Amino acid sequence: MKLKIAIAQIDIALGNSKHNQQTVAYYAEKAAEVNADVLVYPEMWNTGYALTELTNLADINGQDSQALLSKLAKKYHLNIVGGSVATQQNHKFYNTMFVFDASGQKVSEYNKLHLFGLMNEEKYMSAGSTVNTFDLAGIKSAAAICYDIRFPEWLRTMMSIGPQEILYVVAEWPIQRIEQWQIMLQARAIENQTFVVAANRVGRDKNNVFGGRSLIIDPLGRVVQQAGDTQETLLISTIDTDDEKMVRGQIPVFDDRRPELYY
């Protein structure tokens, strides 16, 4: 099955939700103009890492973010992997991903599992505890947030449910570790025999410079399409998920696993 993917590699205005919502809406319109099937945003696009201001900035139950993403999905007939946003749920803060299909219906909600100490995430936010698998555009998919990709055992847990055909990754990944970002994503593609669609932001906040390099990677680990490290852009590529089926037929790693020995 062929699928046109669009990645919105955007800058994020720290603590300025209104401005960021306008940016998100702009890129949805641009994705629709090129007839994209799926649009992917980066991590924490509503606030950036304004963690000390979450009491005032976090989206209560994700209501505003969900309303916007649902509206854009329905208006432009886009399947949207909504990056992630800072939310407040039951008096706790979370880094939350919402996924909407092209009719505007929510198909997944996921709170980031692994919180990143180098950016003090664990001091302000709570961790999730559920998998993030869903059907999108007729394709079995999974998604993870940034630091999650350093835990291949977690991604394998999700990818072996099905198994999934596409792994979406959303991030705010700093530029000084951008080579690791690419290497790990290619490794996750190879070991899970899956397409990886990864959206990172560009720009900077008070403490970090972010590295862009959003990527679409095939199941053999080859880079299909890659954005630059510094500029906002809408990255576009068409993938064919039948390629993945060919790879899995050649090397049946999921059939040959012995999970009873892994834990």
TrEMBL record:
Keyword Transmembrane assigned: no
Superkingdom assignment: Bacteria
Alphabetized UniProt keyword annotations: Hydrolase
InterPro entries in the cross-refs: C-N_Hydrolase, C-N_Hydrolase_sf, UPF0012_CS
Record flagged with keyword Hydrolase: yes
Annotated CDD domains: nitrilase_5 (cd07583)
Domain CN hydrolase intervals: 3-241
One term of GO molecular function: hydrolase activity
Family to which the UniProt record says this protein belongs: Belongs to the carbon-nitrogen hydrolase superfamily. NIT1/NIT2 family.
Name of the protein described by the UniProt record: Carbon-nitrogen family hydrolase
UniProt source species: Leuconostoc gelidum subsp. gelidum
